Known about the structure:
This protein folds into 2 domains: 1-49, Pemi-like Protein 1, Chain: D (Ribbon), CATH 2.10.260; 50-80, no CATH class. 18% of the residues lie in helices and 25% in strands. The protein is built from 2 helices and 4 strands. The protein has helices at residues 20-25, 71-78, and strands spanning 34-39, 42-47, 61-64, 67-70. Strands 1-2 form a two-stranded antiparallel sheet. The longest helix is centred in the last third of the chain and has 8 residues, at 71-78. It is elongated, with a radius of gyration of 16 Å. The mean pLDDT is 88.
Amino acid sequence: MKPAGFLCKIDKLGRIVIPKPIRKTYNLNEDDTVELFTDNDGIIIKRYGMKCTFCENSDDLTNFKGKPICSSCLKALSSK
């Protein structure tokens, strides 16, 4: 794990705010679901179930107008 360069405080309800540059980098938006994992070094946050909007493939995804789309579906869309 590499440090992100942000310090976040936990509020009274146990919440933290994910800084905007990190949300933007990982295309995290309001109401997105994230999954928490733990290991010996700490806590890992990952986007939950990110899959292609059309075929549900989870490999080689890109953001197209706010939706995850795999390269095959993106190619099919651009050829139409």
